[in-house]
UniProtKB/TrEMBL annotation:
Name of protein: Aldolase
Native organism: Paraburkholderia elongata
InterPro entries assigned to the protein according to its UniProt record, in alphabetical order: Aldolase/citrate-lyase_domain (IPR005000), HpcH-HpaI_aldolase (IPR050251), Pyrv/PenolPyrv_kinase-like_dom (IPR015813), Pyrv_kinase-like_dom_sf (IPR040442)
Keyword presence, Transmembrane helix: no
Residues annotated as domain HpcH/HpaI aldolase/citrate lyase: 27-257
GO molecular function: aldehyde-lyase activity; metal ion binding
Family listed: Belongs to the HpcH/HpaI aldolase family.
GO CC annotations on file: cytoplasm
Length: 273
């Protein structure tokens, strides 16, 4: 096994990285080049979204490689809570998984168990294979690698349903859960406020989730939806005051689309003068 100094660092793990705040972006375009741009921008992680993105695992692994080359942490949002999807993504080199639509402690526990190798008294059931990309293709010291992986691979669950909010105390009690990610868009849709992630009732529910998570020292990930830099900063500051330290600053599709619209609008206005 390579020595510890050559191992990748999970920059979303605040205890290991020593960072106060980390930021990333959701990537839904099937492009290693987009990952490289995210890395060169100074972001800490990419949230590679296989639930809403149109790509398979083979393409995702190429995106993991691009992330590694740029020194940005690749996380993988699986399409659903599925053992095979999670384990294959981790074997392919994802440094963590984001599991959508987690509404119960049973689901949260399953997510953790799928990500952990059996070591000691934990409940890990991740399949073992020394010749995977994650294990550098043939790890000599498997025990050390398994322990390193358990300590460095992160497990985030998305709280984006009313049931998830109602069961948050039980979900937060699951040992080995690294963070919960807030899902205001899906939650607003279920609550009848379609397309209104900033609705006061939606924000109020999520604020209660954050308060409970921080009491238990579980980290929280906030996804920011604002369109302008000033609005984005205000949204960030709101969650910072609540104790949130992990942020996704939007999605590549949204950033790209807004930039194109702004440029198209500017050119059309210029032609009318």
């Amino acid at each position: 096994m390579p020595n510890q100094s050559s191992q990748r660092i999970n920059r979303t793990n605040l205890k290991i990285s020593g960072a106060d705040v980390v930021s990333g972006i959701t990537v839904q375009l099937a492009s290693p080049e987009v990952i490289e741009m995210c890395g060169s921008s100074g972001l800490d992680f990419v949230w590679i979204d296989a639930e809403h993105g149109s790509f398979d695992l083979e393409r995702a692994v190429e995106m993991f490689r691009a992330a590694d080359a740029q020194g940005i942490t690749p996380l993988f949002r699986v399409p659903a809570l599925d053992a095979a999807s999670i384990m294959r993504a981790l074997d392919g080199g994802a440094m963590g998984v984001i599991v959508p639509n987690v509404s119960t402690a049973v689901q949260a526990q399953a997510a953790v168990d799928y990500c952990r190798y059996k070591v000691g008294s934990n409940r890990g059931i991740r399949g073992s294979c020394p010749s995977t990309r994650a294990a550098r293709y043939l790890t000599d010291d498997w025990d050390s690698f398994a322990r390193w992986s358990n300590e460095n691979v992160t497990v985030w669950v998305l709280i984006e349903t009313v049931a998830g909010v109602e069961n948050i105390d039980e979900i937060l009690a699951v040992e080995g859960l690294d963070a919960i990610a807030l899902g205001p868009f899906d939650l607003s849709h279920e609550m009848g406020f379609r397309g209104q992630p900033f609705h006061p009732e939606v924000t109020g529910m999520l604020e209660r989730v954050v308060e409970k998570a921080r009491r238990r020292n579980v980290e929280v990930v906030a996804s920011l939806f604002s369109a302008t830099s000033a609005e984005l900063a205000a949204e960030r500051d709101h969650w910072l005051r609540k104790g949130v330290r992990l942020f996704s600053v939007g999605s590549d599709r949204a950033v790209f689309s807004r930039a194109l619209r702004e440029r198209a609008c500017m050119l059309k206005q210029s032609s009318m003068r």
